[in-house]
């Protein structure tokens, strides 16, 4: 999906682009390789580990014409504000490869992995206050059930929540393995990993305010794009993908298409294409199984006028 997403940006060598999810910098590197000396890339990540990768020189670009690169350690929900701070008011393309990076998954103490023993943390930005530990030990059964149903889409959210509340009554649940143990009896046979992934996903989404940040970023991205500019989003679960799909189609998040007096959809974007991962990609990276790539384009105002007339 790397090449599809970069192709989706339709990069002009002298253009200005934003990678709002730098992570390990794979996409940023590919963008830089297509930019000329006049081009510019601004990359966001709220995780200090990503920032360190840039500062230490571990991340570098070997080919290309050394376009201008700026790393911004911040939540992408502040996209517009930080771009303005860096003198950027319009961009040619925005790329978002959502969710957790493989570095974050593979670092046990971050608490993202269902397989590794670690603190129940799950914060992408370790300066933020809320951790998964606080949710698991602090929410009452009702609130936990709602969270697991809404963000984990767990069919047995109530049972899972009750099991958590019962387990923590004797001892606080501090680690990923303690959480696994607490819900072990409610993981359907053969679907243990799937259910655990759904449980961890629910907690992670709440800890990081992922859906609110995504909504805010999409709206700001559409404002910042030049006419014909591209928005490329890779999402990893249906809650994210639904927001992206609705936004590209209708310019809002509930999917209802509003039309103007002439019957033209009042949406700033149009979806150009979507694709999911190939079998070969899933074989290398199992997380790609649920990935969905969508490419949108900011509508050209003059085109719209032609249709109206
Ligand atoms: C799937 S990884 C991106 C991987 C990257 N495309 C690469 O090539 O290595 C997602 C990254 O986005 C970051 N991230 C997720 N949500 C964010 C947000 N709201 N603001 C800033 N960074 C965010 C995470 O910290 C993580 O490093």
Describe the protein's architecture and organization.
This protein is of the alpha/beta class and 309 residues long. The chain has helices spanning 2-9, 26-34, 48-55, 79-85, 102-106, 132-138, 141-152, 157-170, 176-183, 192-208, 210-224, 238-250, 279-284, 301-308; strands at 16-19, 40-44, 68-72, 91-97, 225-235, 269-276, 292-298. A seven-stranded mixed β-sheet has the order 3-2-1-4-5-7-6, with helices on both faces. The longest helix is centred in the middle third of the chain and has 17 residues, at 192-208. The protein is globular. The structure holds S-adenosylmethionine.
SSE order and pairing:
Layout: H1 2-9, E1 16-19, H2 26-34, E2 40-44, H3 48-55, E3 68-72, H4 79-85, E4 91-97, H5 102-106, H6 132-138, H7 141-152, H8 157-170, H9 176-183, H10 192-208, H11 210-224, E5 225-235, H12 238-250, E6 269-276, H13 279-284, E7 292-298, H14 301-308
Parallel strand pairs: 1-2, 1-4, 2-3, 4-5
Antiparallel strand pairs: 5-7, 6-7
Bound molecules: S-adenosylmethionine.
């Amino acid at each position: 999906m790397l090449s599809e997403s970069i192709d989706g940006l339709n990069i002009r060598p002298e253009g200005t682009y934003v990678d709002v999810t730098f992570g390990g910098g794979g996409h940023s590197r590919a963008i830089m390789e297509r930019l000329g000396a006049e081009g510019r890339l601004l990359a966001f990540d709220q995780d200090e580990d990503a920032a360190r990768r840039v500062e230490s020189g571990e991340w570098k670009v070997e080919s290309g014409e050394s376009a201008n690169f700026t790393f911004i350690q911040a939540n992408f929900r502040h996209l517009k504000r930080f771009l303005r701070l860096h003198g950027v008011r319009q961009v040619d393309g925005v790329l978002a490869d959502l969710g957790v990076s493989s570095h974050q998954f593979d670092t046990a103490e971050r608490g993202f992995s269902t397989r590794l023993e670690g603190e129940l943390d799950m914060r992408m930005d370790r300066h933020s206050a809320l951790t998964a530990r606080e949710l698991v030990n602090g929410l009452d059964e009702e609130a936990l059930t709602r969270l697991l149903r809404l963000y984990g889409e767990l069919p047995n959210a109530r049972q899972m929540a009750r099991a958590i509340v019962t387990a923590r009554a004797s001892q606080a649940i501090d680690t990923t393995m303690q959480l696994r143990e607490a819900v072990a009896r409610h993981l359907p046979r053969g679907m243990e990993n799937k259910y655990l992934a759904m449980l961890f996903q629910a907690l992670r989404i709440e800890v990081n305010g992922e859906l609110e940040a995504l909504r805010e970023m999409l709206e700001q991205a559409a404002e910042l794009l030049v006419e014909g500019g591209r928005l490329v989003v890779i999402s990893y679960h249906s809650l994210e993908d639904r927001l992206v799909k609705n936004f590209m189609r209708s310019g809002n998040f509930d999917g209802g298409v509003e039309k103007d007096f002439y019957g033209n959809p009042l949406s700033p974007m149009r979806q150009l294409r979507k694709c999911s991962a190939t079998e070969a990609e899933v074989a290398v990276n199992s997380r790609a199984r649920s990935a969905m790539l969508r490419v949108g384009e900011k509508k050209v105002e003059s085109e719209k006028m032609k249709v109206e007339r």
